[in-house]
């Protein structure tokens, strides 16, 4: 499919249904978006010590993040240079001083260098073997870390990570700054939730502020009704209810949260307020923050209260609740969403317990809120097979966004700005501009 045909699939105010349903378009996305963009790999805390690795995927490419003996961080293809076997299984592990291939026993350093080959003299006089760069585990074209968040790109050329993140980087800044100890660490395992729908439905929905009060009636509104019936007017709302109840706030509430959009498809909702704004204070945490930063700086940090920040196409974070979700496309109608929880170093455990509770209630495959969204995605995937109409609308508040300069656009929460911004990036990637 050539660039002209792809260009015709996305207008400023609508997108053709085939971008969600056509397997050929999905294959091009894997090559031109997931093969070119900066994709989230992992957090440095997952390889905090020498000898540790964390294996994952970028698109369909198996990769691993490693920490060598000198403390260097590497992102490598998870493939033996000899016969091509995957070197380590997905997830976290420790290899100490070397990674050994399970097939022929070739050993590689955590920096990818080939260390040893059984019966190495068999390669004497050949163009392959120890000392040959092609015999090392190969690094990705580009890998960079921003405040502990590691991204990599399969493309040799393109903007640097900081330039690519643009204004969305401030959400990472705020999330890290919420740690009295000045840093974050991934804690616990991962929650995986497979969706039988296209990856873009999830990414678009993150900052669709017209859906919560409709989609989440079965979970959030029910919880609010139960609380109203069972709790007295002076009762303190339990943590689970504090988390679930805001999902069915009013249209006005979500409209006032607002939307922010940046180049390359990134954006966030909220800012001065979000669904996390009314969680109970934790006095011990507040005291630790003030001791670390002083009252004025703490007030600045806590004044930023964002909902979802999207790093298009692969990741989203929630700074106030210290969670992150990763997008893993499998097929045109299959996507895995991974959810991770962070510990704020120097913060009391109550903050971590709240983050874990949030993930269990909202992000896990057995949660109360996420299945509402999944049902909507499923119905979209099924409905767009119908031939009654060719286009999906993105018309709401078209042309009413405010330009704040340096590629930063703002609109009220009910706008379709987030979708239009993502599809501007989609067109750019699919046209080969990266």
3D architecture notes:
- The structure is a single chain.
- The protein folds into 2 domains: 40-153, Rieske [2Fe-2S] iron-sulphur domain (Rieske Iron-sulfur Protein); 170-430, Naphthalene 1,2-dioxygenase Alpha Subunit, Chain A, domain 1 (Alpha-Beta Complex), CATH 3.90.380.10.
- It is built from 15 helices and 21 strands.
- The protein has helices at residues 3-7, 18-21, 23-32, 161-165, 169-177, 199-205, 212-215, 217-230, 239-244, 251-257, 283-293, 295-302, 349-363, 370-383, 417-430; strands spanning 14-16, 39-43, 52-58, 61-67, 73-77, 91-94, 99-100, 107-108, 114-116, 142-146, 149-153, 184-195, 259-261, 267-271, 305-311, 315-318, 323-331, 334-344, 391-393, 402-405, 408-411.
- Strands 12-18-17-16-15-14-13-21-20 form a 9-stranded antiparallel β-sheet, sandwiched between helices. Strands 5-4-3-6 form a 4-stranded antiparallel β-sheet, with no helix packed on it.
- Helix 11 packs across helix 12 (295-302).
Can you lay out the helices and strands and say which pair or pack?
Blueprint: H1 3-7, E1 14-16, H2 18-21, H3 23-32, E2 39-43, E3 52-58, E4 61-67, E5 73-77, E6 91-94, E7 99-100, E8 107-108, E9 114-116, E10 142-146, E11 149-153, H4 161-165, H5 169-177, E12 184-195, H6 199-205, H7 212-215, H8 217-230, H9 239-244, H10 251-257, E13 259-261, E14 267-271, H11 283-293, H12 295-302, E15 305-311, E16 315-318, E17 323-331, E18 334-344, H13 349-363, H14 370-383, E19 391-393, E20 402-405, E21 408-411, H15 417-430
Antiparallel strand pairs: 1-19, 2-11, 3-4, 3-6, 4-5, 7-8, 8-9, 10-11, 12-18, 13-14, 13-21, 14-15, 15-16, 16-17, 17-18, 20-21
Helix pairs in contact: 11-12
């Amino acid at each position: 499919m050539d660039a002209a045909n792809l260009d015709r699939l996305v207008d400023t105010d609508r997108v053709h249904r085939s971008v969600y349903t056509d397997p050929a378009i999905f294959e091009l996305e894997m090559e031109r978006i997931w093969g070119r963009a900066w994709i989230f790999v992992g957090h440095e805390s997952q390889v905090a010590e020498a000898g540790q690795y964390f294996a994952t995927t970028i698109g369909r490419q198996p990769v691993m993040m490693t920490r060598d003996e000198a403390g260097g961080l590497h992102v490598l293809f998870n493939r033996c240079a000899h016969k091509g076997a995957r070197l380590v299984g997905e997830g976290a592990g420790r290899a100490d001083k070397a990674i050994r291939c399970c097939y022929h026993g070739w050993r590689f350093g955590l920096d990818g260098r080939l260390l040893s080959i059984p019966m190495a003299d068999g390669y004497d006089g050949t163009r392959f073997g120890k000392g040959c760069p092609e015999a090392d585990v190969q690094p990705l074209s580009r890998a960079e870390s921003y405040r502990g968040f590691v991204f990599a790109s399969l493309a040799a050329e393109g903007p640097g990570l900081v330039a690519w993140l643009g204004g969305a980087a401030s959400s990472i800044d705020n999330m890290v700054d919420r740690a009295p100890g000045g840093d974050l660490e991934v804690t616990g395992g991962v929650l995986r939730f497979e969706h039988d729908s296209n990856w873009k439905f999830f990414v678009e929905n993150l900052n669709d502020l017209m859906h919560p009060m409709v989609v989440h009636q079965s979970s959030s509104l029910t919880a609010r009704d139960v609380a109203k019936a069972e709790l007295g007017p002076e009762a303190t709302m339990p943590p689970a209810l504090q988390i679930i109840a805001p999902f069915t706030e009013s249209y006005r509430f979500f409209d006032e949260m607002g939307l922010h959009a940046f180049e390359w498809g990134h954006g966030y909702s909220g800012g001065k307020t979000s669904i996390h704004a009314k969680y109970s204070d934790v006095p011990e945490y507040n005291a630790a923050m003030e001791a670390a930063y002083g009252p004025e700086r703490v007030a600045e940090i806590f004044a930023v209260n964002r909902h979802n920040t999207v790093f298009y196409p692969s990741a989203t974070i929630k700074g106030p609740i210290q969670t992150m979700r990763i997008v893993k496309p499998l097929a045109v109608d299959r996507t895995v969403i991974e959810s991770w929880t962070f510990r704020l170093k120097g913060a009391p455990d109550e903050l971590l317990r709240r983050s874990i509770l949030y993930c269990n209630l909202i992000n896990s495959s057995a949660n109360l809120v996420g299945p509402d969204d999944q049902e909507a995605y499923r119905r979209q995937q099924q409905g767009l097979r119908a031939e009654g109409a060719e286009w999906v609308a993105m018309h709401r508040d078209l042309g009413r966004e405010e330009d704040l300069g340096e590629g930063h656009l703002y609109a009220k929460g009910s706008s379709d700005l987030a979708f239009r911004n993502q599809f501007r990036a989609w067109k750019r990637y699919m046209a080969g501009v990266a």
